[in-house]
Amino acid sequence: MIITIGETLALGLVLCAIGALLIIAVRRYLLERGGGTVECHLRRGDGDDWRIGLGRYAGDELRWYRIFDLRPRPNMAVSRRGLVVSGRRPPDESERSDLPSDVLVVDCRWPATGRSVELAMGDLELTGFLAWAESSPPGTPTF
Predict the structure, then answer these.
(1) How many CA atoms lie within 13 A of 36 on its CB side?
(2) Torsion, CA 103, CA 45, CA 31, CA 74, rounded to 10
(3) How far apart are CA 94 and CA 96, in angstroms?
(4) Which CATH class, in words, describes the domain spanning 36-134?
(5) H-helix or E-strand containing 85?
(6) What are the distances in angstroms from CA 128 to CA 37, 69, 131?
(7) Domain-wise residue ranges, the chain
(8) pLDDT in tens, 32-47
């Protein structure tokens, strides 16, 4: 049996795709294994698109990882130092196609830096996030 170059390339692409999916699955398992993780969507304050990811609490940071990413490092860190949670709302009409129906959107701002992000998460995850934000060190305004 003779294997052509095209078949070899196709097999190589299939193996690469399987490898990438396996790496993503192992990465997600390792992130969730230690606990303290929540599924949440994130949108940067500049009106960027919503991205699905996992947030992992680590001290004063919620480290956010994209779900479909090969990098082991977080894509963004949400610090609770100086964090002001300025409101929560259900997804508006334009966001309904990007977000699950059972999430609430929370607006997070850091007035000292002018930075902002929006997080979308379920009710239980949001309760945990707000408790984490409120438990910041003394002298740090959060609300």
Answers:
(1) 13
(2) 170
(3) 6
(4) mainly beta
(5) strand 84-89
(6) 10, 25, 5
(7) 1-33, 36-134
(8) 777 678 999 999 977 7
- The average pLDDT across 128-134 equals 92
pLDDT tens string 42-80: 999 777 899 999 999 988 999 999 988 888 899 999 999
> What share of residues in the chain are helix, strand, coil (percent, to 5)?
30, 35, 35
User: What amino acid is encoded at 24 in this protein?
Assistant: I
Q: How far is CA 16 from the centre of its chain?
A: 25
Three-state DSSP class for residue 34:
coil
Site of tokens 């399987």: 18
Tokens of 86: 């300025």
Long-range contacts of 86-93 (CB under 8 A, 24+ apart): 88/126, 91/120
Give 91-96 contacts, CB < 8 A, sequence gap 24+.
91/120, 95/50, 95/120
Question: Which amino acid is located at 73 in the chain?
Answer: R
